[in-house]
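quick q for whoever's on today - can somebody do inverse folding on this one?? i tried earlier but teh output was garbage lol. tokens:
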């Protein structure tokens, strides 16, 4: 996990996330980087059918697997300030974070407001104490009140997520390409209604605790022959690393072995334990040797 110094701008991001449940970081990526990604995704938006179901939205298009659809998408997933803030928020509950999903979204004119929800509710774990994920919305077109900008409920996160009644206050943050909109998985939110004549496009990048089952099945989206082209950091983020103790292994070792191109026929399992577990296991073995 990355350490955040007192001078690190990510420290402010973390404070805002913990206090308000969301924040906007302006001008985090240059306009040309977003424009290049948008150009790659443009024909995919055109080819993708509308969603089915009231939650996804019949006037909305969505598609994933973005890391193999555009080389420019990796800059979003690996943005250092985003990763630093995310790891700081989630590190109390995990050894490493992972990519939960990377999805392109297109909201068409006439789309109604989305059902207000908390993304953490996809998992059945305890709520109000644990943060499960951090979402980052990267707009490809400007988000406004008129075109369905995300409705966010400030202060609805953490223990407040246990309240049954709806929060009284909501806002729509207006921001544009190059800006990053972060919010916690416990923060109540939903897409607004698109009352404009234009489509609203964005890419959402979501990170979650490394021991959870992610929303998007990363190993199907990026099988070994695809992930071999990723940087080691990106491959690890999509799941080609273990989460101690021994979670997500392949034949008892780190699944990054699958990316080496030199896979042996037989593999010997290797412990991947947390320090406290390794110490307890070593002490137990020592006791056994003394007793013998």
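ok took a stab at it. sequence:
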């Amino acid at each position: 996990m990355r350490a955040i110094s007192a001078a690190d701008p990510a420290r402010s991001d973390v404070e805002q996330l913990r206090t308000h449940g969301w924040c906007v970081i302006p001008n985090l990526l240059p306009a040309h980087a977003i424009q290049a990604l948008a150009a790659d995704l443009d024909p995919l938006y055109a080819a993708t059918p509308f969603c089915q179901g009231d939650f996804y939205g019949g006037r909305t298009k969505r598609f994933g697997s973005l890391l193999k659809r555009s080389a420019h998408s990796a800059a979003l997933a690996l943005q250092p300030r985003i990763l630093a803030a995310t790891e700081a928020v989630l590190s109390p509950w995990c050894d490493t974070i992972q990519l939960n999903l990377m999805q392109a979204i297109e909201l068409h004119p006439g789309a109604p407001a989305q059902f207000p929800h908390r993304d953490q509710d996809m998992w059945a774990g305890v709520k109000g104490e644990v943060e499960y994920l951090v979402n980052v919305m990267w707009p490809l077109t400007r988000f406004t009140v008129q075109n369905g900008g995300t409705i966010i409920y400030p202060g609805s996160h953490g223990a407040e997520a246990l309240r049954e009644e709806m929060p009284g206050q909501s806002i729509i943050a207006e921001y544009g390409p190059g800006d990053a909109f972060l919010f916690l998985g416990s923060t109540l939110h939903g897409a607004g209604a698109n009352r404009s004549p234009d489509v609203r496009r964005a890419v959402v990048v979501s990170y979650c605790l490394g021991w959870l089952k992610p929303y998007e099945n990363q190993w199907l989206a990026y099988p070994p022959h695809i992930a071999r082209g990723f940087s080691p950091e990106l491959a690890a983020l999509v799941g080609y690393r273990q989460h101690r103790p021994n979670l997500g292994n392949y034949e008892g070792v780190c699944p990054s072995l699958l990316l080496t191109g030199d896979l042996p026929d037989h593999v010997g399992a290797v412990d991947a334990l947390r320090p406290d577990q390794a110490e307890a296991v070593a002490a137990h073995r020592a006791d056994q040797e003394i007793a013998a």
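fwiw The first helix runs from residue 9 to 20. also The two ends are 41 Å apart (CA to CA). so keep that in mind when u check it
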